[in-house]
Amino acid sequence: MSSSPMAGSSSSARDRPPTRTSFIPEIQSMMFALGDARRPLHETAALVEDIVHTQLINLLQQACEGAVLRGSRVISAEDILFLMRRDKKKVRRLLRYLQFRDYKSKVLKTIEDEEPLDSTENNKRQRLAGDFLSWVDQTGEFLSLSDNQEVDDVKLERLERLERQTRGMDSAQYSEFCESRQLSFAKKASKFRDWLDCSSLEVKPNTVAMEILSYLAYETTAQLVDLSLLVKQDMTPKTDPFSHVVSASFIHYHSNTEIKRDPESPETTPPSTPGSSHSSKPSNGGLGLDSKTRQRKRKKSSAVSGVEPPSGAIQPCHIREAIRRYSYRHTSANRGNGMAFLAC
Prior knowledge:
Strand content: under 5%
Main location: nucleus
Largest sheet: 2 strands, parallel
Low-confidence stretches: 249-289, 298-310, 335-339
Shape: globular
Protein name: SPT3 homolog, SAGA and STAGA complex component
InterPro entries: Histone-fold, TFIID_TAF13
Mean pLDDT: 74
Helix content: 55-70%
Number of helices: 13
Pfam families: TFIID-18kDa
Keywords: Activator, Nucleus, Transcription, Transcription regulation
C-alpha cells in the first residue's frame, strides 16, 4: 500500500464515477467554518473530498482485514482503534469525541423520557473503547487517556484562529459561519455510507464504527485546512515579519486603507480625460493610463505591501503542497506501517 496520503487522489478527480455521491457543497461549508474564505473554491473542495475519500477507503480496507482476521462479522470500533493506537494524541481526541456522543445520547434520552440525567449509565461508546484499549495496553500509556484534561494545542490554536476570523464579520456572515460550524459528515449518515460504498465491503462497519469514520473524515478535512493555511501564509509575500499573527482578512482590510492614503498609489490617481489631467504627474508621455495598465499597477502594489487578493481562498496548490510536506515528515516514521493517515 502506498505511504503517501495523496495516493490516488490526484487522478481521482478525473476518474471519479459520475454517479458517485458528492460531499463537495458540505466540504465547502466546512472549510469556511475551519478558516477558509467565505466562498471556498469548488476545485479545492473537490481535491479535499478526493483526499478524504481516499484516506477513508484505505482505512476501511485495513479495518476490514482486521475484522476478518479476528473472525468478526462487522467492522467495529476496536478495528479502527487498533489502527490508531500509535498516535496517543489522536486516540485521546477520539475518546473525547466518544464521550461527547455518549453524553449527547443521554441528554436526548432524558428529554424524551423526562427523567433526571444520570451521568453513570449508558456510556457504551466510552466503555467499548476503554475495554479494548486496556486489553492492548502493555505499557500503561492508554490508562489515563480518557481522564486526561490536558489542553489540546491543535484545537486551541484552531479556535483562536476562528475567533480572529469572526471579528470582522457582520451579522449575516456570522450567521452563515455558525450554520457551517454545525455541519458534519455524521449528520448525513445515509449519504456518508453511500459515499464510502459500504455495501461493497465483505465486512460492513457497525453504527459506532460509522460514527468514528465520520469523525475522522471531519478531522482530516480540518487538518488539511490547518496545513494549507500555513502553506498559504508561507507563500504570501510579507514586509512585516509579525504579519503572520493577524488573520488574512484583517491584513487585507487594514492594508487597503493604508494604500488609499498613499498619494503614489494608482487608487488615488483619478483617470485622465481628453484635453485635461487631474494628476500632478505626467504618465505615459501625457497619455492617461488605460484600464489594463492600472490593473497591473494595482496588482503590483498589492504584492509589494503583502496584501492578499480579494479571492483569498485556499488554492489547490496549497492543498498539494501541504500534503507534500506532511508526507515528507511522516513517510520515514510510517515506513512499513502502511499508509500515513492524516487523522489517525
